[in-house]
Amino acid sequence: MRLVLLFFLFVFGSQLKASDKVDFVKDVQPILKQNCYKCHYDKKKKGDFSFLTRESVLKGGETAKDKAVIPGNSKESVMIKLILSKDDTEYMPPKGPRLTEAEVEILKKWIDQNVPMEETSDKAEPKKEKAK
Fold first, then answer.
1. Which residues are bridge partners to 40 per DSSP?
2. 18 three-state secondary structure
3. What is the tens place of the pLDDT at every residue in 43-68?
4. Which of 3, 45, 58, 82 is the most exposed place for a label (fewest CB within 10 A)?
5. Range of the domain at 46
6. Residue 4: other Cβ atoms inside 10 A
7. What is the largest CA-CA distance in the chain?
């Protein structure tokens, strides 16, 4: 009985459901901070891609025709394709451990939910876009 309870707590308690909204600061930002910011943040923009603002994320990088992030469409977003790539010469992140299945699912949901990004209190974190 105890094992069954632990199993259900593990499976259902630690993962977002498909319908759950992701919280950028709580769910997405820690993944990006740990795996992506060292190469794609603020002044460091490898491949001309940065997670500094929502605008910079949507702009993409060097190959503008292949958008890194397509709001509402994680399957066609280059970012997800690179994270899941089996090609040892072209995947993200290029150094360190691969993202976990749970982390990839959070990033997919973030993209599928139209890439919400909120302003944070830390000045070294993504900035909120000003209304135009």
1. 45
2. coil
3. 889 999 999 999 999 988 886 567 89
4. 3
5. 18-112
6. 8
7. 57
**Strand locations in 46-110, DSSP E?**
none
Whether residue 23 lies inside any domain: the answer is: yes
Check residue 99 and give its pLDDT: 97
Q: How far apart are CA 79 and CA 28, in angstroms?
A: 14
Domains identified in the chain, total number: 1
pLDDT digits (tens, 9 = 90+) for 67-105: 899 999 999 999 999 999 999 888 999 999 999 999 999
Q: How distant, in Å, are the alpha carbons of 24, 44, 52, 53 from that of 120?
A: 10, 20, 12, 11
Contacts of 59 (CB under 8 A, 6+ apart): none
* Count of residues making up the chain: 132
Residue 47 included in any domain: yes
Is there a cis peptide before residue 93, judged by omega within 30 degrees of 0?
yes
> The pTM is what?
0.75
